[in-house]
Write a structure and sequence with these properties.
The chain has eight helices and no strands. The chain has 199 residues and is mainly alpha-helical. Helix 5 crosses helix 8 and helix 6 crosses helix 8. The protein is rod-shaped, with a radius of gyration of 34 Å.
Length: 199
């Protein structure tokens, strides 16, 4: 009888030990699973095949085929021409989408009713860039009107024609007076001259 009591006590003791071991292992496994679940997204291995390097031309072509915010302007136009957000339909949050504002000849980066630039240009920065790259001719260029003393002076109509070729909306060009256009042209010439002097 003493042996059976002793065996019963040993069995209970062994059972408790097994339960404790199983509990500790289950707890450890649970902690490991939670830690792995948190780290798993960051543990992916990368290889060189996953990275595709594209030229600026390829990126530009992709942007021209993509309209991320669905406002009717492709990402290339938004980023490089109008300086609007490719991720927001209404860059200035005035309730009118960017495409509608550009078609109306208003600034999609300036809320309706507010005068952000002192004029009605769709994007003065884009016009300035277009002016700098498409209108100003270098000193001594053999093009018509060029002289050895400075850059070419163009007429307002010549400037408008070049801006049209650069993609400026016709409505915006009609709203700009000759005086305003020549002022922008003069500022652009000055800016380019300062940049060339700085370089």
């Amino acid at each position: 009888m003493g042996d059976s009591f002793s065996n019963s006590r040993d069995t209970k003791k062994s059972g408790k030990i097994i339960i404790i071991i199983v509990g500790v292992l289950a707890l450890a496994l649970g902690v490991w699973r939670i830690g792995y679940g948190i780290k798993a997204p960051y543990l992916r291995k990368t290889n060189a095949d996953q990275f595709v390097f594209k030229t600026e031309e390829q990126l530009a072509e992709e942007q021209k085929k993509t309209d991320t915010d669905g406002d009717g302007l492709n990402d290339y136009e938004e980023i490089n021409i109008y300086a609007t957000s490719a991720y927001l339909k209404d860059s200035d949050s005035d309730g009118i989408d960017d495409k509608t504002e550009i078609d109306k000849g208003t600034d999609p980066n300036c809320p309706e009713g507010k005068d952000c630039h002192g004029d009605n240009l769709v994007n003065p920065e884009a016009v300035s860039t277009s002016t700098a790259s498409g209108i100003i001719l270098p000193v001594g260029d053999s093009s018509e009107g060029a002289s050895a003393s400075g850059p070419v002076t163009l007429t307002p109509e010549q400037i408008r024609a070049m801006l049209r070729e650069s993609g400026a909306p016709e409505e915006s060009l009609k709203k700009i007076s000759d005086e305003e256009l020549m002022k922008i042209y003069a500022e652009s010439v000055k800016q380019v001259a300062e940049e060339e002097t700085a370089n």
